[in-house]
Amino acid sequence: MADLYKNAFKAALQEMRLQTGIWCTLRDPLAAEMMADCGFDWMMFDTEHSPLDPISVLPMLQAIAPYPVTPIVRPGSLNAAEIKKLLDLGAQTLLIPYVQNAVEAAEAVAAVEYAPAGIRGVSGMTRATRFGKIAGYHKAARAEICLLVQVETVEAMTEIEAIAAVPGVDGIFIGPADLAASMGHVGNPNHPDVIAATLEGIRRIRAAGLPAGVLTLNPEVYDAAIEAGAVFVSKTVDMAALRKGLLG
């Protein structure tokens, strides 16, 4: 038999230890394997805004498995069937986009928990169970699943404390790009009002007792977010880093 995989990223968040990562949109396992050895704590595979989907995420998870980096997967939406598939494929950390309130946060929690607490479907021969080798997987799995929810609208920002109070939510991520659009500054996440709202949101998440996360390509905002208390942070996207490197 085999032991349940430990989620180093979740353990770090529980201790509020800074975790830095990279946003991944390339659909190439070889590129993923290369990035896995670049010193990041986590890699976020984005199926919402990239060619990636739950099936093409599988070879990405396999490619980085030998490396000391945690894969995070963002499903396309708060979709229980899609979440179930990603969990069965072996993802232990999920970032659920566009969570607007405590009700939707609770739906996300239910999607990652087996009955009677939740609605995750039960299957034994999955990559998550090491094809049936992990004894007691279904009773123990939730302890190593890290559920992150994303607030990215003006409405959602007003609900931070209520979302943070939902049992089973392990962290809250602020999405500056969509927040900017919601605030009337579409395409400009570096607008002073958006930056101020993002930093204030991070402080509120921390005050509510949860780790806060953010992605920003602005080095000054990145540093300010960490100073404000952000725990899981990224300042680069694989495609942006590739383009920057090519242009010199």
State the helix count: 12
Order of helices and strands: HEHEHEHEHHEHHEHHEHEH
Our measurement of the CA-to-CA distance between the termini, rounded to an integer number of angstroms, reads 50 Å
CATH topology grouping: TIM Barrel
GO cellular component, one term: cytoplasm
Domain HpcH/HpaI aldolase/citrate lyase: 19-240
GO molecular function: aldehyde-lyase activity; metal ion binding
Keywords: Lyase, Metal-binding
Index terms:
alpha/beta; 8 strands; TIM Barrel; 248 residues
Summarize the helices and strands and which ones pair or pack.
Elements: H1 8-14, E1 19-24, H2 29-36, E2 42-46, H3 54-64, E3 70-74, H4 80-88, E4 93-96, H5 102-111, H6 137-140, E5 146-151, H7 154-158, H8 160-164, E6 171-174, H9 176-182, H10 192-207, E7 212-215, H11 219-228, E8 230-237, H12 238-247
Parallel strand pairs: 1-2, 1-8, 2-3, 3-4, 4-5, 5-6, 6-7, 7-8
Helix pairs in contact: 2-3, 4-5, 10-11
Characterise this structure.
With 248 residues, the protein is α/β, with parallel strands linked by helices. The protein has one domain: Alpha-Beta Barrel (TIM Barrel), CATH 3.20.20. Helix content is 41%, strand content 17%. The protein has twelve helices and eight strands. The chain has helices at residues 8-14, 29-36, 54-64, 80-88, 102-111, 137-140, 154-158, 160-164, 176-182, 192-207, 219-228, 238-247; strands spanning 19-24, 42-46, 70-74, 93-96, 146-151, 171-174, 212-215, 230-237. It has an eight-stranded parallel β-barrel with strand order 1-2-3-4-5-6-7-8, surrounded by eight helices. Helix 2 (29-36) packs across helix 3 (54-64), helix 4 runs parallel beside helix 5 and helix 10 (192-207) packs parallel to helix 11. The longest helix has 16 residues, at 192-207. The protein starts with 7 loop residues before the first helix and ends with a helix.
